[in-house]
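Below is a filled-in request sheet from our internal design queue. Each sheet records the structural input a requester submitted and the sequence that came back. We keep these sheets so that new team members can see what a complete request looks like end to end.

REQUESTER: design group, bay 2
PRIORITY: normal
MODE: inverse folding
CHAIN LENGTH: 548
BACKBONE (tokenized):
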């Protein structure tokens, strides 16, 4: 494998561990837990794994652990640090008992079902330490939801002598981990299931999971690119850059990138929904900033747009819900041959209010709203080019104002979408350390016989040695939500809190960032070597949440 000088240097980086993980561990059990909502329903669905206590690791005495074989799965979209979860898991297992073995299921959860696997040895793991990507074993989006899948998984685990499975994924993947753990307990199948919190979107967090891994690295990558664009905009002085950022269900990435780069405009989906804003309201707010800057002779700037914005506009949300219901398993619609035919069909089926909104949209955007659905039957918002929609609508409004003599500037826009650029970056020191600790924590949870838990590492704004490791019952994070027309147990997504410190800081300063005098920050690339205040800092979001 050919490596760059940076890869070679990163291979020698030794991730930092909390003190409790540096030698041997004792476990302190906290009080019994309950789900975040819908307690009766969740308890009924998970009678064997509901109400388990929180677990905290502390330094302890050496123990003799029996041999255990473990399988690991990478599930869902990539996030920086996944390889270090596996590295930490591998190292932890080998320290607890050198005869322990680790197997990787290939291409995500489907590998468990279809019995595709490989043993992860020291030689294999060594090539992937501190690297980005999920290519060590691959990932996939297969959902583990059916009993026949669980039974097929049990078959291969029995064949390989696997007593535990670690699922590294986001809220859906860890929901599946919880269901799998409950099933094996109910059937008295001796297979433990442990989850690890992954998603660059940042929407898998709570009091015990302070952040999901990959969020730090991805936001630093995007913020560097935004800073580069802002420097270019300040140099050329003739373009407005509309930048869509990943984050369907929450605006954490957009907010964090705004805190790091200070753009002229940043939309926060949760605020749009809370204020019942329309698409016209959003356009008017952007136009106001562009006009003020343009009339001051500044015909450039940046606008950050969360990927999921369109679903948070209340009227658009209603339209999308109607489309989701209308197009689910709709053979008549799927059999139509032309876009015009489909468009007329849709207009005839919508309520009058939604039909008016649908008719007002550019044809390209309207078409994108009717594209193939995701496995849950929902619109794939990553395919909706919201930034182009806003550019078109803003441009029309500005042309009208120019004709009325209310706008003296010039408007020329460039659109961007930053998504895949951040998912497989070499993890920052923070993510390298955090993920390694999550994997190491999982090895201890397994060796202690736990199941239905998620690895938890807290106090993340302190030096790594002071982090607190342990386990949180996955049922503690769950509630009931409607999915594909049915109520299902899922991990509750964490949205941007408008009463939280990160948003309050943003709200306090955003008018200053809109001003004619630019106040951009140019974060630059991720730094891996140098002083800790440059290299090891967590996100601004996490620092503000912890009043740092």
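RETURNED SEQUENCE:
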């Amino acid at each position: 494998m050919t490596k760059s000088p940076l890869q070679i240097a990163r291979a020698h980086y030794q991730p930092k561990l909390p003190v409790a993980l540096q030698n041997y561990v004792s476990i302190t059990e906290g009080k019994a837990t309950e789900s975040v909502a819908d307690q009766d329903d969740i308890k009924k669905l998970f009678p064997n794994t509901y109400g388990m206590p929180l677990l905290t690791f502390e330094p302890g005495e050496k123990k003799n652990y029996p041999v255990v074989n473990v399988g690991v799965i990478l599930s869902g979209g990539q996030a920086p640090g996944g390889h270090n979860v596996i590295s930490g898991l591998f190292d932890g297992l080998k320290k607890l008992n050198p005869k322990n073995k680790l197997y990787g299921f290939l291409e995500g959860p489907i590998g468990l079902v279809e019995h595709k696997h490989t043993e992860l040895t020291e030689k294999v793991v060594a090539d992937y330490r501190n690297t980005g990507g999920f290519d060590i074993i691959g990932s996939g989006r297969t959902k583990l939801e059916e009993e026949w899948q669980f039974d097929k998984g049990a078959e291969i685990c029995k064949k390989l002598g696997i007593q535990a499975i670690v699922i590294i994924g986001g809220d859906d993947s860890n929901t599946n981990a919880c269901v799998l753990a409950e099933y094996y307990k109910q059937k008295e199948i001796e297979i433990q299931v442990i989850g690890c919190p992954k998603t660059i979107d940042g929407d898998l967090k709570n009091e015990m999971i302070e952040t999901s891994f990959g969020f730090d690295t991805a936001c630093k990558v995007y913020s560097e690119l935004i800073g580069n664009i802002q420097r270019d905009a300040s140099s050329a002085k003739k373009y407005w850059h509309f930048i869509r950022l990943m984050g369907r269900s929450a605006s954490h990435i957009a907010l964090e990138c705004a805190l790091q780069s200070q753009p002229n405009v940043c939309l926060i989906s949760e605020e749009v929904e809370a204020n019942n804003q329309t698409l016209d309201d959003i356009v008017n707010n952007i136009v106001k900033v562009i006009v003020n800057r343009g009339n001051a002779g500044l015909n450039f700037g940046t606008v950050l747009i969360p990927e999921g914005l369109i679903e948070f506009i209340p009227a658009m949300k209603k339209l999308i819900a109607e489309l989701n219901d209308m197009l689910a398993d709709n053979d008549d619609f799927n059999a139509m041959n032309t876009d015009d035919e489909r468009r007329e069909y849709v207009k005839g089926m919508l309520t009058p209010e939604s039909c008016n909104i649908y008719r007002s949209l550019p044809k390209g955007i309207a078409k994108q709203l009717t594209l193939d659905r995701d496995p849950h039957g929902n619109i794939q918002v990553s395919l909706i080019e919201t930034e182009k929609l806003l550019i078109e609508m803003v441009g029309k409004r500005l042309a009208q104002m120019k004709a009325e003599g209310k706008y003296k500037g010039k408007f020329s826009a460039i659109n961007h979408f930053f998504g895949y650029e951040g998912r497989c970056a070499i993890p920052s020191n923070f993510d390298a350390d955090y993920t390694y600790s999550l994997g190491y924590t999982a090895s201890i949870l397994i060796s202690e016989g736990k199941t239905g838990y998620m690895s938890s590492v807290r106090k993340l704004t302190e030096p790594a040695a002071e982090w607190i490791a342990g386990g949180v019952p996955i049922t503690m994070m769950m509630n009931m939500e409607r999915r594909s027309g049915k109520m299902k147990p899922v991990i509750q997504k964490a949205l941007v809190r408008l009463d939280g410190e990160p948003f309050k800081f943003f709200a306090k300063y955003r008018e200053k960032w809109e001003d004619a005098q630019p106040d951009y920050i140019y974060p630059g690339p991720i730094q891996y070597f140098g002083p800790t205040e440059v290299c090891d800092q967590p996100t601004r979001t996490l620092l503000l949440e912890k009043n740092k």
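SHEET NOTES:
- The longest strand covers residues 25-32.
- The chain has two domains: 5-211+427-483, 215-423+499-529.
FILED BY: M.R.
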